[in-house]
User: What shape does this take?
Amino acid sequence: MTRVKVCGITRVEDGLAAAQAGVDAIGLVFHAASPRNVGIAQAADIVHVLPPFVSTVALFVNPEPERVHAVLTGVRPDLLQFHGEEAPAFCRAFGAPYIKAVRVRAGVDLLQSATSYADARGLLLDAWSEAAHGGTGERFDWSLIPVALPRPVILAGGLSPANVASAVRQVRPWAVDVSSGVEVTKGIKDAARIAAFMKEVRNADV
Assistant: This one.
């Protein structure tokens, strides 16, 4: 069964809508340049209302260590996600499980990334963009993913209800990650689109 994360949650009602649709995890963005950035108090309010067994993921882009520690203390996420150029030693320095995002384009060595971040719980593969580190709504060439990548793959980048079934069938990732593909505007999710996304993932799993 393909796991699902909805990233860029900024409102309590969107977190609840994701949980009610059956997602496995929500993502909270702690990156000031992102339109989906949340503060610690805002994130804590979202986490507080989630039902059991919905994981929370805190996303950072080249953060200061103090920022990560503050989020760990104030929000208590289940998992850290590093979406910048963070070195392996930095990612593992917080004593918390983490996933590492890799922006994919021709020439990026994903096997080397899997080796470098061997203690990551998984690699999140996103589209390369000069404009931003993620959440662009752009997809990448899924054929660039090695078949025998030795870390669980979380597929991101331009996924939506219209294409996620094809993505799951072609890549067979451990999980898929969606943000802009279920939004009405940046940072504001649409419950119907989340439900449609989940339906397509489950259809592809059959």
